[in-house]
Design goal:
Blueprint: H1 13-17, H2 19-27, H3 31-56, H4 62-83, H5 92-115, H6 151-169, H7 173-184, H8 189-196, H9 201-224
Helix pairs in contact: 2-3, 3-4, 3-5, 3-6, 4-5, 5-7, 7-8, 8-9
């Protein structure tokens, strides 16, 4: 089945296929495996926070969220790393679903601080991993290697993610979940059907073709014309 009419920045099929092996290496003490997993799913979590989560909060707080998404992602990484022993892998969709719950909780905690008029302390830690340069440090104290992208490519990537977040943030909860499970988490259609309450994998796949993809295309068209996504 053809993919959605948008480059979502989702992990490649081969990356998703290695999740189980990466988790096994991590269980054996391979911190580099967490870095690999985080790099794979961080873009999806950024889109979640900048899209669906952003749309759910008070509009007055959205500019602040835009400024602090990286901090929330950093807190998500730290929390996920500390709780990995609690996670039970149940298929490709389970890891992103688990990480999404942690990211949403971190976002809600940050919103609570804002509403209370408090200043949330900026964490000075980040992902466990290796490398020589990064904008964040890890729970293990080592920075993550730089992506190697230049300023122009980073700016283009951020703009594309903003557009994706705006488009996906406007979807219904059901359609948003279908897109995330299938294209970001790598769940097969049967797993998606089970999680969203569809009668079969074929039924939810056809729903995606007939309803979700056209809605994404329409939102993209409005976005290009300068209207709301």
């Amino acid at each position: 089945m053809a993919g959605p009419p948008l480059d979502l920045g989702a992990p490649r099929a081969d990356e998703l296929a290695s999740i189980g092996a990466d988790l096994a290496r991590l269980a054996e003490g391979g911190e580099r495996a967490f870095e690999t997993l985080w790099r794979r799913f961080q873009p999806a979590l950024a889109v979640l926070l900048a899209g669906k989560f952003r749309a759910s909060i008070d509009p007055a707080l959205r500019p602040r969220l835009d400024d602090e998404i990286e901090d929330i992602l950093q807190e998500t990484a730290i929390s996920a790393f500390s709780k990995l022993r609690e996670f039970r892998y149940r298929g490709p969709g389970s890891l992103l679903a688990w990480l999404s719950t942690i990211a949403t909780r971190a976002g809600l905690d940050r919103v609570d601080y804002w509403k209370a008029g408090k200043r949330h302390p900026r964490l000075e830690r980040a992902l466990p991993g290796e490398g020589s340069s990064s904008t964040s440090a890890s729970p293990g104290g080592r920075p993550i290697a730089h992506t190697g992208r230049g300023p122009s490519s980073e700016a283009a990537l951020e703009e594309r993610r903003r557009q994706v977040a705006e488009v996906l943030g406007g979807l219904s909860d059901r359609h948003h979940q279908i897109v995330f499970l299938r294209f970001f988490a790598g769940a097969d259609w049967n797993e998606v059907a089970e999680l969203v309450g569809s009668p079969s994998g074929e039924a939810v796949a056809m729903e995606c073709v007939r309803k979700v993809f056209p809605e994404i295309a329409a939102r993209l068209a409005r976005q290009r014309q300068g209207g709301p996504g």
